[in-house]
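Weekly modeling sync, notes
Attendees: S.R. (lead), two postdocs, one rotation student

Agenda item 3: backlog of single-chain predictions. S.R. asked that every request posted to the team notebook include the full sequence so nobody has to chase files. The rotation student volunteered to paste the first one in as an example of the format we agreed on. Action items at the bottom.

Example entry:
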Amino acid sequence: MTRPYPLIITNNKLLNDWCDILERHDPVAVDTEGDSLHCYFEKLCLIQIGLPEQDVLIDPLEPLDFTRFNAVLAQRRLILHGCDFDLRMLRRGAKFVPGEVLDTYLAARLVGLKEVGLASLVKEFFGIELPKSSQKANWARRPLTPAMVEYAINDTLYLIELAERLSDELRAKGRWEWFEESCRKAVAAAGEDREKDPERIWKIPGSAGLRGRELALLRALWHWRDAEAQKADRPSFQILRNEELIELAKSVDAGRTHLPAGVHGARR
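Predicted structure, as returned to the notebook:
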């Protein structure tokens, strides 16, 4: 699809003026980009809005007031693909609470399709290969590169038409009410913070092979790594990879090395 270059919103005047346009559209395609690969505290880095004739990128790293935007968007039917992550990011980063949501990922599953990723669906329904070069980009980076802008736009560009086609198939199969209920449950789940089990969170891949004091050491090392990552606002794997935690627990238990300074709770 050939489209004009997207509108990039970086200030409150532009955001509030554009909400006049948003009010005239329903449904609206929505996606987000976040950063969890380059920092500890996952943050909302970009909001993508797709309208039939316009693509909009909103920069939440700027000091924006989302009050009117949230109010207008909550009154629209929102089309997302795999809505859980995006709705959580919007709730935490912009304090947004959605109204009606249509999730094309859930729709594709209920239709019975085997490949339900967005790229697979776009290829199947529109014959278009979506580039993946920016899939793991640093979305906190500014300015966005042309490749990042293209990637971000593609996440909403096909959603409205895709939702229409999948909706037709759901109704033809008599599964529309199932779909609506699945979407309501997904929205409710995204509105709740998941509690992490403190007795399971540190049991990383490879921990099943540890015994006794090795497990106690791993638990202490995991919590030390988590605290260090929070202090530095870096991903945990940049402090120590999981494989290194496992090996360190074994080495300390065998007396080949010592615990890092600040590790507590695993002494003899």
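Discussion: group reviewed the output briefly. The first helix runs from residue 12 to 22.
Action items: rotation student to repeat for the remaining queue; S.R. to check formatting next week.
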